[in-house]
Every structure is written in C-alpha cells, then in structure tokens.
Amino acid sequence: MSDAHLAIVLHAHLPFVHHPEHKAFLEEEWFFEAVTETYVPILLAWNRLSDEGVPFRVTLSLTPTLLEMFVNPLLKQRCRQYLNRRIELAQKEARHKGRSAGERAVALHYLERFRQVRDFLFRKHDGDLVPAFKEIQDAGRLEVLASAATHGFLPLMLTPNAVRAQVEIGVETVTRHLGRRPKGFWLPECAYRPGMDRALAEAGIRYFLVDAHGILNAFPTSPHGVHAPVVCPSGVAAFGRDLEASKQVWSSEEGYPGDGAYREFYRDLGYDASYDYIEPYLHDDGVRRNLGLKYYRVTGRVGLHEKQLYDRAAAVRKAMEHGGHFVFCRQHQLRFLKSKLSVPPIVVAPYDAELFGHWWYEGPEFLEEVFRASQLVRDDYVVSTLSEYLDQHPPEQVSTPSSSSWGDKGYFEVWLNGANDWIYRHLHKAEERMAELAGRAAGKKKPAAAVRAARSAKLRAALSRSTSLTAMSLSNGNVEWAALQQAARELLLAQSSDWAFLMATGGAAPYAEKRTRNHLHRFTRLYEMIRSGNVDRKYVESLYAMNPIFPDLDCRAFL
Amino acid sequence: MAKGTRSKTPSPRPPYIDRGEPLPRSYAENRIVALVRSPEQIHLYWDIETEVRVAGNPQAVRVHDLTAKRVYDLDPPADADNWYLRVAPNRTCRFELFERRGARLRRLATSEEVTTPIRWAGESGEYVPAEIIQAVRHPISRQARAPVRIARAPLRGRPAEVAAAPARRAPGVEEAPRAATTAAAKGSPPASQPPTPISVPWEKVFAAYAGGK
Predict the structure, then answer these.
(1) ipTM of the complex, rounded to two decimals
(2) A295-299, A440-444, B94-98: segment of lowest average pLDDT
C-alpha cells in the first residue's frame, strides 16, 4: 500500500426550485435532468463497483438545497411524470419508421436508461435518493461534505452572522438527512476569504477545499503546494485543487469530454424533430428546448449539422480508455510528488457532479473506470476520502489560504459585476435586519412540540406528515415564531450564489432576478410585520407552502 | 388552439418578462460598503439619508490606502451610488463617504477595512518561508521531516503600525451623526480585532531566508 493519495471530490448542487403555484415549471427540470443523467447513473456505477468489491472512495458534497429537493413530495411526483414522458417519447422514437436503424438503436439506449432510472428511483428507493447515498456512506465508501445552507456566496456577505447561519444551518441539514455529522465543508464556488474558516471551526468542521491559487498564495507559503493540506489558524485544514487532474477533465478543448466519440450535448431531438411531432413534449410556451434525446456524437470541430451518429458502445469504450489514461497520469504524478515532498502527497480532484452524465454523458462510466483501474496501481497511490487522509497525516503547515474562488478569473468577478452588483446592498440590509429579528427570538423558547419533532430520529416521516416546526408553530398559534423562521428562509433563499451567477452568465437571468427580488421583498414584508406585531398568518403559510425548505430552521442561527 | 391548426412555429407573444417584486432604491441611511472583487479591484456602494439626498450636494469618496499610506479622493458623478476602484494587490484600504458643502466636507459614513489578495506568491517581497524553513530551502532534505510547529500564524504580513493607524480627522471635516452607521454595524463583531499574539520569531525567519538566497 502506498502513502500517496488521490481524492475524487464531487460537488452536487442545484438551487431550490419548487413552484407548486404552477402546473409545470421549466426551471424545475434542472433537477429532473440532473437526477436522470447524473445522480442515478453515478449511484448505479458505485453500486456496480460495490458489487464487484472494488474498494473505491469518494468525497461528495450534497448541498442542503439539493437534499431538501430529494425529499420533496411535489418534486418526486413531477420527476416521475418527467420520466414517464421521456419513456413515452423514447418508445415512440425506438419504433419511429422515419428514423435510421442507428438512430433507433440510440433511442433504445435512452429508453433503457430512462426505465433503469425510474426503477432505481421509484421501485427501489421510493423516489428519494438520500437513502441510496446513505447506503454507500454507511458502507464506508462515500464521505458526504456539508455545504452552506443555500449555497450562499460567503465572502461577499457583510456580517459574520450571515456566514455563520449559512454554515450552521447547512451542517445541521446535512446531518439530519445523512444521519452523520459531516467532517468536511464544501465552500460554495470554492469561495474563501481569510477568516471565514472561523465559522467552520465553530460548526465543528475539520476541513474545506479551495482552488489551487488559494493554497499557492497562502501565507505563509506552503512548501508542499497544493499536494498537502495546510491548517488555518482556526485549526481547520484546507485542501487545494490539483490543476493537472482538473484540466484533464474540465477543459472542453484539451480535456476528455471533447473527444469525438462522446455524445454531443448541443444536438438534441427537441430541435431536430418536426414541430408537430415534438410539440406535446414541450412546455406550455411551445418553445423548442432540449429533451434529453441526443443522437449524435461530438465528431470533431464541425458544425452541428455535420455531426455523426452516436455509437454508445464505442463511447463507453472511449470512457474506459480515458479512465485508464487518467489513472496512468495520476500514477506518474504521484510517483514524482512522492519523490519530491517530505510529506505524503495527495492529489485533490474536485469536479461539479453534474459534469458527469449531464454535460459529459459518459462521465459516470469514466469515473467508474478510474476507481476500478486505480486498484491496479495500489503501489503508487490509494484512492482516499479527504478525512481519511487527514486521519493518517494531520497537516503541520499552519497557513491562511488566500481569497479565491473557482470561478472565471479565480476571484469574485463572476458574482460581483455590473450585471449583479445591485443585489448586495439589499442582501446586506436584509442580513442586518435578520440579525435584529433573531435578537427578538433570542429570549424565547423554541415551541415545545416542535423541539420534540426536531429531535426525533424519524424526521423524514415527520416531514411527510407535515409536522414541521413551521407547520406546528402555525397550528400552535405561535405565528410570530413561524414568521421569524420564514424570514430566515427567505433571506437564505435570496442569498443563493446561483442567482448572481445566472445574472452574470445570462442563461436564466430574468428568473434569477425574479427569485432574488421576490425573496427579498417577502423578507422585508415579514420583517415589517414582525416589527409591527401584526403578522398575517395566511401570508406566512402561503410562503412556507411555496418554499418548504429547512422545516426545523432555528432563526437564532443569525445571532 | 386546437392541435391541428397550430402553426409550425409558435406565434410570438408580447415579451413580458417577470422580473419580480420591486425593491427600494435606497434605505435612507448613510453608509459605504467595500467589497473585494479581485486582487486589483474593490467594489464600493453607498447610500445616503433622505436629508442629504434632498440637499442635493455631491458626494465624495475618500480612499485611505493604509498599506501605501496614501489618501486620495474620488469624485463620482452625482447620481452614482457605486464604484469599481482599481487598486494594487495586497493593499488594505478603508473608505469614507463625504458630502461636499462648497469647500467643506462632511463625513457621512466610513467603511470597514478590506484587503485585496495577492496576485502571485512572491510579488512585492511577499514571499515568506513557512515555519518549516529548512523545507523551503532544501525541499527534500531530512531536516524537513522535523518541522518546527507554531501555534498560530498571522493572517497576512501587514506591518502592525499601519494596521493600527488611527483614522485621522482631515482638516475641514466635521462628523455627521453616527447613529446610522453604528446601527448598520449592529450584529457584527468589532470592526478591527486586535492582532493575534504571534510566537513566531519573524526576524529570524526573514534573516534565514535572506541568508539562503
């Protein structure tokens, strides 16, 4: 066994999108697509590895918003509808006389995949993926990281209270769902500002991750670069992202996903099929969009109309080949590092989970092969989770990482620019007002019945019976407590880094803007109601119904 | 519309984009907030009380570059309420918002101190060896295996006298009531915490490193 380590870290996150007020909602499909293309395929791959007895180790952040979506009854129901519609379309396609034999074969693959996902999700796991992840966690193969409650961009928050609340509520939520207190923390967007680690230390976190330059520019400089963690003055360790391993997978130009054999993401049946044929599968607005059935491969640097037919078997072979290549590169990289460093080296390779499957369709097979092939090079490195490394090799280098993020240009440019800078004055004001509201709650006792529910181990069951703290506070007549909770909820939702990101990239900018404005507006209304002592019970109820997230939230986290 | 009669492309609807509820333009308080954007940029935004707005006097922003010990003023246009300021990496700055009353300035608000990150390790003499001095000088030597442990390290090598420099009152500056700014800071810890006592013999570390070059 070697004492060089490779840590594969995946970051699974989606913002909380839940719109019961609409019959169907376009942005909810982000979740259904990610479940179908990423979360279930990676779980299937990991289950295969477990069955084979491959001793793989993976570190995964499941953000609190994503966990809350996994257990949400409405989203479960809509996800089932989504899968049924896709199965219906794939069935039609597999029998379509106008399609070539090759296209029908690809359609058949999709049909099989959609059915497999539906069976896994609804037959095996009752629509909830949390137990599926928990099973692998409890087997000791998966380490789940906590993250900020709603993926708030922590360095741009004004008050330490807001940072603490995001951390604390995030850690609590992950603990509640996974039944185990997380040791590590995924900083949203890997965004770090010196001193933020204190909030992590207070929440009992042992380590977090930053981008490579966060460690390379750390003070004092670490002689080991990103290949060994440093420990912050607060006692929390920081791991740095390895550039080589990142680039091989991330880069669309030089990285694996750009290979000609892989599925082309941008050529989709939603745009290729005749309008009348495809119209029943589109949203009410009738605009053509991706439907997840893609028949072509990347091919090369050619126009979308010149793409060639996708060959699933060849693509999977290529993914396995690339998995082997990745392992070969890590083997040589770690051999070299071991000869140069005075501490056991670790290569930390963090990726967005949604890259695997959603963007890079063969990504889950690639990862599977990386774990499988890593067994063959056990003399050169072992695959570990980050806390396994820390247990074996406590860091000795005391250093403070530099401000950084993994966004474009490496700092906070993506989340603070002309398109989104207007949000901060409102968010900051709301932070201060929330601290003031939390002060009102400070002297009060948490409603008794609710405390019992919060401590109950069978919280998920409690959730489905809708006996959450908010629901109970309302039924107990403790409307002010429910309003305080809801105010905290609205602020947290407004803080999601996704909104600023979407405003900057332009993708779903109007939706992002609407979400930010609406949450802030609701927060302000609640704030005024609570201050005037005149809380509108129906209003609070309606807001909670729209965003039933963090049912046991304690707004005193903002103190 | 019946399915059969639907045209191939959907008819264009009037482009209504729901951008959500309106938010106030101002919270009617004097404040200035600085946010670090990158090693070279700081974003500033400010807000003013209604009386100041009604008076219509232009605002000025005073930049205190505490690292370079330099003070200068920005004169943003009258309707501006934010600014992207170009600065150097590894600078600690504080900002003050003023109202111009003819030749006199009236201070409205002061920001917290912010520090831009370094761009590269090693720029402007920043590169300082870690406490494992030998490891830096002889990365694969045996001495590196016996690191000298310290309890805490400073956040950044900032000269203490600059960090602790008191806010000097410029001549011709009168204080505005501080109620708004202190209310704004409620709920946050003291603005500048005293530096953590450090047990590292930095002079020796610097000397060791300089001697090794």
Answers:
(1) 0.92
(2) A440-444
